[in-house]
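In the previous chapter we treated chains in isolation. Here, by contrast, the input contains two separate entities that must be folded as one system, with a combined length of 554 residues.
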Amino acid sequence: MDQEAERDLSRLCVHTITTRPLDLETAVAEYASRGIRGITVWRDALQKTGAKRAGRIIREGGLDIVSLCRGGFFPSTDRKTRKSSIAGNLAALEEAHDAGAPLLVLVCGADPGQSPETSREQIKAGIEAILPRAAELGVRLAIEPLHPVYADTRSSINTMKQAIDMARYFDSSWLGVAVDVYHVWWDEELETAIDSCGRDGRLFAFHICDWKVPTGDILNDRGLMGEGCIDIRRIRGWMERSGFEGYNEVEIFSDIYWNLDQDRFLDMIVRAYLDHS
Amino acid sequence: MDQEAERDLSRLCVHTITTRPLDLETAVAEYASRGIRGITVWRDALQKTGAKRAGRIIREGGLDIVSLCRGGFFPSTDRKTRKSSIAGNLAALEEAHDAGAPLLVLVCGADPGQSPETSREQIKAGIEAILPRAAELGVRLAIEPLHPVYADTRSSINTMKQAIDMARYFDSSWLGVAVDVYHVWWDEELETAIDSCGRDGRLFAFHICDWKVPTGDILNDRGLMGEGCIDIRRIRGWMERSGFEGYNEVEIFSDIYWNLDQDRFLDMIVRAYLDHS
């Protein structure tokens, strides 16, 4: 790699949840000072300032706001809960618009009290209910397939194929797919699916981290790029070959890293990004 | 359910690992006294008596030996380890034959130091190396697809489709598939895959337990039937519709249940089997 490529951070984005201990202002300043160019904002990080002011802080800090995380969680055995979930998603769309985020990521949800098929029908109904408003506001929606280990309570959409099928059902340019290597790396059909999704113009986001061996906690022990068994560079290659030109978004849930000095952790993120993705 | 069906234990099998604290003699006696008809033996349970004597204990106790668990673990970045794994699998086949077990279950293995594709090539080579001896000994081999949460170190075969593809590659009646609800319940294509596998005559085994919500430990917190979110009865229905006539094998890894009085636990297994599978 030549020296320029070695320092190319122009497509690096970090999720606020990755550096959860930092408030939004600090996160923006710390990301920008390291040459990180994008930020994906989790909804909790908007609460203190409100969405509009958060958007201004980000723009004035010199960062692109890549997406808002996260909407979804549509299924429930309880009709009232389903209705209030749709209201919550509509509110998230307003927040995304107010903050200037062009994309809302959907973790679609699951309810272990019913079959996955029923949950998927409710996901479909939920997307149908919010998609028109997303288009009005100019905010795209990305379905993120979740690893099958989360099929009980977090998502009944567990493969790229399922996410693409759901996106295609609606035939709207406002609906696409978010690819997170943690969730899909094991899938034999990943390369083919990314290719197919790219031909549709539906590759909306790319999240990176690593699968640690062993993984101590299935939710909050994700690894820094290079720490685990995922060939991130190879998957990134498939994304780019399929026409994806967006950010590489570092999204890491980790009790270990949240307990680290976040300045030091951000330096590690930049290094790991350059070396392993 | 009429009274007879309500007491139908004729297809109930328990894995020795489910009641790990019991030695083989005790397990056989306790299973038989409750009307359990089948036993699947884990290799550690054969060590004390040797395979031949273990087979006699089981037959004299009135139980069918359903399978031996487990072979597999073929992939490794190290050539010597791959060679010794094949030797270990050949030894397991002798044990199965000596004990009178008609089937050896394969947990195929994975090595996080190489790509899943490479691991699958090594799995293929491993099966190729042992299949002729399996046929000579009259011991069938069953590929068990493992949940994608185990894709890092335990198996690069994570869906029914992959297991069936691998089995079909060899075109041998000695090679089939073991379906464990814990590993495949989340898969949208499960019903279709079971159907397709059944048409091939390759449904060799059916393992049951439940996916607890939440799951405290991804390896050793499996649930008793009815305790989690898997619709076991529905999947069993697909198996039977596809021609499966074998045992329903209760395979539960659980620190919680291993710490319970095993007599009480066996009563719970029988009750849960009748109520939820």
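Chain A has one domain: 3-276. The interface with chain B takes residues 112-113, 115-116, 147-149, 151-153, 158-159, 162, 185-188, 211, 213-215, 218, 228-229, 231 of chain A (CB under 8 Å). Compare these points with the single-chain example from earlier in the chapter.
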